[in-house]
Description:
The protein is of the alpha+beta class. The chain folds into 2 domains: 3-121, 2,3-Dihydroxybiphenyl 1,2-Dioxygenase, domain 1, CATH 3.10.180; 140-275, 2,3-Dihydroxybiphenyl 1,2-Dioxygenase, domain 1 (Roll). The protein contains 5 helices and 17 strands. The chain has helices at 16-26, 73-85, 95-101, 153-163, 208-220, and strands at 3-13, 31-36, 39-44, 53-57, 62-70, 91-92, 105-110, 116-121, 140-150, 167-172, 176-180, 188-192, 197-205, 225-232, 238-243, 249-254, 272-275. It has a 9-stranded mixed β-sheet with strand order 10-11-12-9-13-16-15-14-17. The protein has an 8-stranded mixed β-sheet with strand order 2-3-4-1-5-8-7-6. A hairpin with a 5-residue loop joins strand 7 and strand 8. It is globular, with a radius of gyration of 18 Å. Pfam families: Glyoxalase. Residues 5-122, 142-255 form the VOC domain. Its cofactor is Fe(2+). One of its GO terms (molecular function) is ferrous iron binding.
Amino acid sequence: MGIRKLGYVGLDxxxxxxxxxxxxxxxxxxxxTEKSGTDEVTLAELDMFKYRLALYPAAHDRPRHVGWIVDTxxxxxxxxxxxxxAGHTVEDGTPQEARLRGATRLxxxxxxxxxxxxxxxxxxxxRTAVARPDGxxxxxxxxxxxxxxxxxxxxxxxxxxxxxEFRLTDYRAPGLYFLRCNxxxxxxxxxxxxxxxxxxxxxxxxxxxxxxxSYDRAKANGAPISxxxxxxxxxxxxxxxxxxxxxxxxxxxxxxxEVGEDWVPHDFGVxxxxxxxxxxxxxxxxxxx
Length: 289
């Protein structure tokens, strides 16, 4: 009970057209648009749900909010109490925000980094199937996880593990922790860095072939492949990464493992089974303490 899964990520972006081109031509992901006040919000069609990745036109590129789906209104109230007891100010989202997200209830607070975190009850299905630009199925199947890097690592761990009740799956010492809120290996990873940033956001795909087709399109369209095709050591996912127009990574992956109640957290040692060669220096090659 409590938080069930990663629901959505909202980004402020300076170049919506470049994002739309990357999503469509390179990753095979279509978009729709919705009005939110005076803004036209671009929504990526990752799966049948309305609100997964939302792009808001802005003067600066930065994370706008991250949303976690909560099981029930009672669980939302319980988590609100835990957050309040831990010193966080929790507020209700506006009716307009709730409608856009497809939520029946919406609350928000600010994490130790300064990012807005939302807790939502309910999701709205916008479609029964997703039409891919290249006609392949299933392609992208949803939003997987994200990695948040920050100098306030211990405060973030306190929030997610002790207040929001995420469980530690595994780690690389020192300074990189993978957390779960359901059987999926991880929905968020927390890392130490000198400045706060979203290191990457992962799109789940249905098969190795879907990842491979995206990889071919990325190379054909000259997309900046920032980390080559490879398989991670800890969750066994096969993936590659592209640098998106906002400057961080998008991971295109499939095949991550699930873990059971008897799973024992451990240091998984090296980052990859094979591949995942970085075009630039890997900030997590030797995580800072």
